[in-house]
Amino acid sequence: MSKMSKNIGLFLAGICFLFTGCAQKQEMYLMAENTEEQVTEKEQDVMSLPAETETEEEADCYVYVCGAVAAPGVYRLAPGSRVYEAVEKAGGFLDTAAPFSLNQALEITDGQMIHILTKEEALQSDNTPDGNGESVEKTESGIVDGKVNLNAATAAELMTLPGIGEAKAGAILSYREEHGSFAKIEELKNISGIKDGVYEKIKDCITVN
Fold this sequence. Notes:
Layout: H1 3-48, E1 61-67, E2 73-77, H2 83-89, E3 113-116, H3 119-124, E4 127-129, E5 135-137, E6 143-144, E7 147-149, H4 155-158, H5 166-179, H6 196-202, E8 206-207
Parallel strand pairs: 1-3, 7-8
Antiparallel strand pairs: 1-2, 4-5, 6-7
């Protein structure tokens, strides 16, 4: 074989090697690109998954509302609801009810019974609820010889008087806390909302002794 033929053979072999190497590199590049696309798709799938909730939702509460309400019965309320909301579910207080006989702001619990006393029941009861809804013994009666003692009566006892509702009973208690005991029954007229008309209706039913 001539020297020229050998050179041509070597040249052709070099070209084949060059093209073969480029083809292999291109194939490796395409494989790497496909792998990267697959990883990216997996990452997107993971990001699209809904996050797991840390805690389960609390179940609703069932309470039994009875006593001096329009529609006694068992009612379902959302967790964290208050006593006043349960009373609203039961149609609200009757006119004979004593709303001050319980803590309406108290948070309800599942299976709780909420008993609304009447004014008469509140007066006859030996116990009255404190701020947490627990019963405590009365230390002094608000009724003296058939009259309501302005210096000792509870809100429920004051509400037994003609023309005295929740607002006026609350105003009397606030006045008593701010100014101390009533010196005479006429002092009641110093309270906003209690003027001569209301006073004339109740003057024979009240005392400060």
